[in-house]
Design goal:
The structure is a single chain. 83% of the residues lie in helices and 0% in strands. With 114 residues, the chain is mostly helical. It has one domain. Helix 2 packs antiparallel against helix 3 and helix 3 runs antiparallel to helix 4. The radius of gyration is 17 Å and the shape is elongated. The N and C termini lie close together (11 Å).
Length: 114
């Protein structure tokens, strides 16, 4: 795995949890808007929108660099539109990054030739 691929996965992983948190906060703000006088939906909507756009841009970059199958790429996108899916995406991406780092280190040390 080259450095740009690792960076693309790391960026996607780092934005997935904040995107999930912002989605949950936006849902809470929507409920509060309808039940109280509290209206933070415009602010949280903008924050969530920016994080979602970053997620999609980083997702496309990671998909392009890692050459995921269509199923894997679509899975990461579907996880971004589920309220808690970003947490699952972050966990899966962390495992994938760790696995790729182990393989890269083994290659550098000459343990694996492929």
């Amino acid at each position: 795995m080259d450095n740009k691929t690792a960076t693309a996965l790391r960026r996607l992983r780092l934005v997935s949890a904040p995107e999930a948190v912002s989605f949950l906060l936006l849902l809470i703000c929507s409920v509060l808007k309808r039940t109280t006088d509290f209206n933070a939906v415009p602010v949280m909507g903008m924050v969530h929108g920016v994080l979602f756009i970053l997620y999609v841009v980083f997702w496309l970059d990671a998909w392009n660099r890692t050459k995921w199958t269509a199923g894997t790429g679509i899975l990461y996108f579907v996880l971004s539109v589920l309220p808690t899916g970003g947490f699952f995406a972050e966990r899966k991406l962390r495992r994938a990054c760790d696995d790729l780092a182990i393989v890269a280190r083994a290659r550098r040390e000459g343990v694996v030739n492929t």
